[in-house]
Specification:
single chain, Alkaline Phosphatase, subunit A, 17 strands, globular
Length: 554
């Protein structure tokens, strides 16, 4: 087994501070500072190997790479196996098992959602004076108007309620009952509005993000979540939708797999969107006081149901699985407020951590957040100490009987279904592919915005070093541990989960089994429910809309 080299690093988002009554100001050692703008960009079904800063030459992502190289590359960032649970964890700071939101993602006209007694991240930030906005995907419940994002703490919402839409016509098909509905909305609190903006959805989100940023008062702190559709597939006849297929075939002709070529086109649009967003922050004079996170909600669905041709290589598994390919996600964070930038960090993070970390960065007391599973990484990150987080519950799926958890370097996997294969997606490296173009990274919109007035701009040498240490390398094996019963892996030295160590470390197995047993005591049954005919879009002029009153659910 070839060990993976990592560089221990620090992420500093901004300074810890005291809560103030006024909108914008906090304190750091007696120095008056503004609350940071927080921009969270979430990709959908993006695989580990689908960004070029992880070492693959196949699909260039110069803007995303520039964000990573100028900031902090999060090498041990974990999420849930699928989208609805990941978004629930992000918004609540709590494991989805506490609310019954674990398991299969929410379907259209399914009467469930994050319980209304849960206070979500945007609502917490509003208490600290933030303007809060969501663009893109919601997918955590909309069966009553109270469950929609503009009534859960967001000042505005532009996007779709369900798990995906078609990129051009913005419809969604509930395939099992063959119901098609339009799903694009422009909501504000207590007012739900259908929106008919035409165009390719990734570009529409870019336009919306630019408009929000351009119109925003820089003196007022902004929380903007941009939850992209890309690179998730759609339910169109051709589910991998690109702006111009001829252009993509020409640009990525060296990629033999036509599905992977289309995926590359979807990624190109996503990468351009990141560049446009960072550039807009610069022009609005907000970048110097912003925290920008780019992350995926889960691994790629490389094949099978809702295939998008993404790649999790060399990690084992894919979306829906508790293997690393499903839950170890692409992530990076950039901020001019970071004291030590251009680093790879091996800090142990989970999607639940963003709520307390952002809240702390904004000046809030984490004690006010109640019972959460997220860890405030703030002071440890800021002072270059080890993470507070030692343990992570990956998931307990009470319907599939699959469980997984991580303690420091060790990961237990229980009753994980055997897959058709072990590594999903292409390696991304071939002598026929164009070589990595560092100049393109340095000339990207993201890098030009960040380094416009920097006396120490990002260098080619730094790019080479960071790209090298970000690439995971594992020894290829012909035999893989069968985890249909139980496996134990050391994922620090074996991130590809090839060698079962359960017989070698029985005490660690017992410890992790006991931790899982503790969490079973707080596990709530999954709230999945069948399609409710009252939510049929035919009842709402062909649009997916809330269909129940909150009184019905009390």
């Amino acid at each position: 087994m070839k060990s993976v080299k990592v560089v221990k690093s620090i992420i500093v988002l901004t300074v810890p501070c005291l809560i103030g009554i006024s909108v914008a100001f906090t304190w750091d050692h007696g120095v008056k500072t503004k609350k940071p703008h927080i921009i969270f960009i979430m990709a959908d079904d993006l695989g580990w190997n689908d960004v070029s800063f992880h070492g693959a030459d196949q699909i260039p992502t110069p803007n995303i790479d520039a964000l990573a190289y100028n900031g902090i590359i999060l090498n041990r960032y974990y999420v849930q196996p699928t989208c609805t649970p990941s978004r629930t964890a992000f918004l609540t700071g709590r494991y989805p098992i506490r609310t019954g939101m674990q398991g299969y993602p929410l379907k259209a006209a399914e009467p469930r959602g994050i319980p209304l007694n849960e206070t979500l991240l945007p609502a917490h930030l509003k208490k600290l004076g933030y303007v809060t906005r969501l663009l893109g995907k919601w997918h955590t419940g909309y069966y009553t108007k109270e469950h929609t994002p503009a009534n859960r703490g967001f000042d505005s919402f532009f996007g779709y309620y369900n798990g995906m839409i078609q990129y051009f016509n913005h419809t969604y098909i509930q395939d099992k009952i063959n119901r098609t509905g339009y799903d694009l909305h422009r909501d504000v609190p207590n007012h739900l509005n259908v929106d008919y903006t035409p165009g390719y959805f990734t570009d529409i989100l870019s336009n919306e993000a630019e408009e929000i940023i351009n119109k925003h008062d820089p003196e007022t702190p902004l929380f903007l979540e941009i939850a992209h559709l890309a690179p998730h597939c759609s339910d169109a006849v051709d589910p991998l939708e690109v702006r111009d297929l001829k252009e993509i075939d020409s640009k990525f002709g060296y990629i033999q797999n036509p599905k992977r070529r289309k995926f590359a086109g979807m990624m190109t649009a996503l990468d351009e969107s990141v560049g446009r967003t960072v550039s807009a922050l610069k022009k609005a004079k907000m970048l110097e006081n912003s925290i920008i996170v780019f992350a995926s909600d889960n691994g790629a669905q490389s094949e099978g149901f809702l295939e998008n041709a993404g790649s999790n290589y060399p990690l084992r598994g894919l979306k829906f699985s508790v293997y690393e390919g499903g839950i170890r996600a692409v992530a990076c964070v950039y901020s001019p407020l970071i004291k030590k930038r251009s680093r790879l960090s091996n800090i142990f993070m989970h999607v639940t951590d963003w709520l307390p970390t952002f809240y702390s960065a904004a000046g809030g007391s984490v004690a006010n957040l109640g019972e959460i599973d997220g860890v405030d990484q703030w002071s440890k990150i800021r002072n270059d100490k080890e993470s507070n987080r030692k343990f992570l519950l990956v998931n307990i799926d009470d319907k599939e009987n699959t469980e997984a958890a991580i303690y420091e370097d060790f990961k237990i996997v229980i009753q994980a279904p055997e897959l058709n294969g072990n590594y999903y997606g292409e390696s991304g490296n071939n002598e026929l592919y164009p070589k990595y173009n560092i100049t393109r990274v340095l000339n990207s919109l993201t890098n030009l915005a960040i380094n416009e007035n920097d006396i120490f701009p990002l260098s080619s040498k730094t790019v080479k070093v960071l790209r090298s240490v970000s690439e995971l390398s594992c020894k290829e094996l012909t035999q893989f541990a069968n985890c249909s019963q139980l496996c134990l892996f050391n994922i620090q030295i074996d991130p590809c989960e090839t060698l079962d160590l359960s017989s070698k470390y029985p005490n660690i197995v017992k410890f992790l089994e006991n931790k899982l047993d503790d969490y079973r005591h707080v596990l709530k049954d999954q709230t999945n429910a069948p399609f409710d005919p009252a939510g049929n879009p035919e009842n709402f002029n062909g649009t997916w809309m809330p269909w129940r009153s909150n009184d019905e659910n009390k």
